[in-house]
């Protein structure tokens, strides 16, 4: 499992469904670099049970992410056609009708692999292609990527464990507070609370004296 915090987010270009039903080619996060932070989250499979609860939870909070200038993007290893079909199914029948943020189709599995969230057994052939020796789907990974394309936060849950969307929003607030004020955020920090000034020089002096 890769730790990407502090590193540039892997670049990719893939098909996606946007605006609730429009299939596009060559969707990339590069369009947001220099403009918007991104919450990129992976989910295992279309037409499942925990996954639609998460997708709808992000949609329910989408306006709050947008108020902060933050883009939300989902990814699974299903095809664009599968995403599109699931978007046609009403919520009360297990579908994701009404989801407006982009849903990327990682059919090559390489995006999930690059972000370190690909579950299942696999190996590379001599042409550097992935060859499956078992099921290959994404864990519930989530990455907060800043405007410069650098990963600032990541979590990865196993399949049965749904994520807390309010926590993802809190991390966006914490990142933006740090960027705007230069102060760090202590445990359980919430938007509107004070931060802390990081006294790195004082720590260095203490360590050198002891």
TrEMBL record:
Localization annotation: Cytoplasm
Residue ranges of domain Thioredoxin in the record: 3-177
Tree of life domain: Bacteria
Coiled coil: none
CDD domains in alphabetical order: PRX_Typ2cys
Pfam families: 1-cysPrx_C, AhpC-TSA
Keywords: Cytoplasm, Disulfide bond, Oxidoreductase, Peroxidase, Redox-active center
Annotated TM spans: none
Gene Ontology biological process: cell redox homeostasis; cellular response to stress; hydrogen peroxide catabolic process; response to oxidative stress
GO (cellular component) term, any one: cytosol
UniProt GO MF annotations: thioredoxin peroxidase activity
Active site: 51 (cysteine sulfenic acid (-soh) intermediate)
Function as written in the Swiss-Prot or TrEMBL entry: Thiol-specific peroxidase that catalyzes the reduction of hydrogen peroxide and organic hydroperoxides to water and alcohols, respectively. Plays a role in cell protection against oxidative stress by detoxifying peroxides.
Family the UniProt entry places it in: Belongs to the peroxiredoxin family. AhpC/Prx1 subfamily.
Protein name: Thioredoxin peroxidase
